[in-house]
Write a structure and sequence with these properties.
SH3 type barrels, Immunoglobulin-like, six-stranded antiparallel beta sheet, five-stranded antiparallel beta sheet, globular
Amino acid sequence: MARWLVTQRDRQFTAADLAELKELAQGGRIGPGDLIQPPGASDWLYAIELPELKGLVKRDLSAADDDLDGVRKGVPTGVLVAAALLITAGGGYFMYDYANKIQDTNLELLGEEGLKLTEMLVTAPDGAPLSGKPDGSGGAVGTAEKNSTVQLVAKRGDRYQVRTETGAEGWVTVDDVIPAYFFADKDTRKDYDPIYNPDHYVLVKNASWMQLPDQRSENITVFEFLLQNKSKFDMTDIILLATIKDKRDNILETKEVVIEGTVGRYDGTMVGSLQPDKDDKDGETRLMTTSYFRELAKADPEAELEMRWASGIEVTMESEGFVEANIDLLQIRAMARQLEE
């Protein structure tokens, strides 16, 4: 029998068929932020975005709507600002100028038929400049117009990489946009927060580093660590930051390290290195999660990939004489399915 799989925060259950799924939704036992996997599918969809449940699962925006009405009618924004700061602090943000962002924004776009909870509204007064690089350098490559909708691509530090309605991509500051999920009910905000703050939910644990004598001569550092995922989403597009310091704790050098594979929901995985085949003279070492390596090895058992696998990753730096090395999470993405209009 075809079953629908439902994920609610830290538990999963199934509905025997679509009729039972609709009954659960009508009875309020499925929330808008719950993830649902249709029979035979590998992707997860939000309940509120599932066509079969349209009109059956609704966002509880009543509390937010009361405050929004106050803004629309010209009532002082103090109550809204206090509520908004509580929302943003709980979600990992601190936007001290939230009131200024709100008062000139077309808040009607946040209604039931407006933004999806996985979208953001541009609130910057003159539009949000799209930077070509995550640190804001390299100049603007375009602009996301005020009150326009953007889709989240990635997050790094205090910047989002976004895609505009015209398909342009670039980096904006978190203060230039408002994720629509801020205005949802408490449980939905909790469910959606890992999408916008994935770096808050994946930890680098048990990290260590070493250098053998031959590696020291080539400035190679070997890092071993575990990536621990505390969220209900699989995480991918992993970028780490290797940092080396001198004996005075001064940073000598940093280097970004891209890791293939995923970190499963509520799971952890070590990271290792897959050496190229000995006959592939131009091959390069691939850095990946252990879970991803196991998938590759299972899919091609004749390749004997275990013979080329080693725990930990090697990172080559340019600086010499360092006495401390750290590996930290720089960027990661929650694998949350977003339906296109």
